[in-house]
Amino acid sequence: MRLWIAKQRYLIDFTLASLARRKTKNIGLVLVFALLVFALASVTLLTSALRQEAARVLADSPEVLLQRMVAGRHDLIPPGYIERIGRIRGVQQVEGRLWGYYYDAVVKANYTFQVSRENPPPPGRIVVGPGLARFRGVQTGNVLSFRSYSGKLFTFTVDAVLPAESELVSADLVLLNEADFRAFFDYPAGHFTDIALSVANPQEVRTVATKLAAALPDSRPILREEVLRTYQSIFDWREGIALALLSAAILAFAILAWDKASGLSAEEKREIGILKAIGWETGDVIRMKLWESMLVALAAFLIGYLAAYVHVFHFSAALFAPVLKGWAVLYPSFTLLPAIDGLQIATLLFFTVFPYAVAVLVPIWRAAITDPDAVMRG
Amino acid sequence: MTSARPSGLAAGVFALLIVLFLASFADARRLAHKRAGEQAVRAALAAKLQLTDLALFTEARYTRHLSLADLHSAAQDHPLSLEHFPSGSLIPPPAHLRSHAPLDRQATLPD
Predict the structure, then answer these.
(1) pTM of the shown model
(2) Is the ipTM of this complex over 0.90?
(3) Domain ranges of chain A
C-alpha cells in the first residue's frame, strides 16, 4: 500500500511539473471550467432554494381558488356566486377576494392592489410592500397619489410598510380597505375578483372542485396543490433562455475540453514517447494523464461550486438579477434559505468531472501503445 | 523536505478546497437556522393575505401571479400577440396548464 501511495505521489509530482510547463494554458482551462461549473451550480442552487421557499411560504395559500372566465379571460365574480358555492356540500369557508393590478406611470412599475380582510387599514390609508416603499422612497406617514383608471386622483397616506423580510411575497403590494378599493377601481358593488374557499376534508378537495365546475360551468377552480406544483416546476431546467445560454456555454466548453483532452499536442506526444523510451509502462502513462485530468476537473468543480454557493446565498444571486428582472421595474431584494440538494450536487460533479476525466483516456492510450520512436518522430 | 514536493502542495490546496466545500454545508445549516424566522414572516403574511404567488416577476400579470395565469396568457391581447416578456421565457407554463385536471370535462352540466 505504502509503495502504491509513494508511486502515485511521484506520478502526481510529475503531472504537476508537466502542467506547470504549460501554466497559462492550464490555468485558463481551470478558470473556464470553473466558470461553467459556477453558472450551472448557481442555477441549480437558486432554483432548488426558490422551490423550497415557495413550498414553505405558500403552504397555507387558499385550498381552492375560483376564477370566472368570460371569452377566455378572467372576469369578475358576480353577486350570488358566493351563496351558491356556500351551499355545496364539503365547502367550509368561502371568501370573495378583491385585488387588481395598477400600472404606476410615474415610475413605470406594476403594483398589486389588494384588500386586506384582517385588520384593514383605515379609510384613506394604505399599507405598502417594502419593494414599493424603497422604490418610491416612502415611509410610514408619507402620502402617495395614484391616478385611478377613471382619471380621478386618489391620495393615500402610508399607514405602514410591510416587513422587509416579507419582500419576496410582498414587494409590490398595496393593501387597502374594501371601500377604498372599490372606489379606486370603480368596482361594481357585490362583485369580487375571485373566490378563495376551504374544504372541510382535505381528501375531498378534488371532489369539491369537480362539484364547483359542475355548478358553475364558467368558473375555473385552481387547487392549492396546483399552485404548489407550479412553483415546483419553476425555472424548469429543461426550458427557457437560461438553458439555451448555458447549453451554448456547455457546448463551447465541450469543444475546448475535447480539443484539449483528445487532440494531443506534438509536445505531449513527444513527452509520452520519451517516457516510454526511458522505461515507463503504458499503464503508468495512462495513470499520469488520469491524475492530470482529475486534478484539473476537481479543482475547477470545487472552485466553481464554492463561488456559486457564495453568489447565491451570500450575494442573493446578484448576477442573475438582471435576467430575472426582465422588463420589471420592481424586483424584490431577498435572501433565501439555503437548500442544497445532495443529489443535484453529485449529478453536477458527475457530469462535469467524469466526462473530462474519461475524454483523455482514448488518445493517451493510443499514443501510449504506439512505438516510442514513431511517437517522438510525430 | 517532502513538503516542498508539488504533490504535497497540491494535497494542501485540495485539502483546503474540500474543507471549504464541507464548510459550505455547515454554513448552509447555519444560514437556514438564522433565516428561518424571516421565512416564517413570509409564510405568515402569505397565509394572512391569502397570497398565491411570489413577487419575483412583476412585469406581466401572468408572471406576477403565475399560478393564476389563464389558459390564454400567451395570446393575451389579441390572437397573434405572442408571449414577449423576458421572464416568460425563463419559466415554464404553470403546472395546471400543462397537466390540468380536466374538472370541466368530469363535471356533468346542470339541467
Answers:
(1) 0.85
(2) no
(3) 10-57+235-377, 64-232
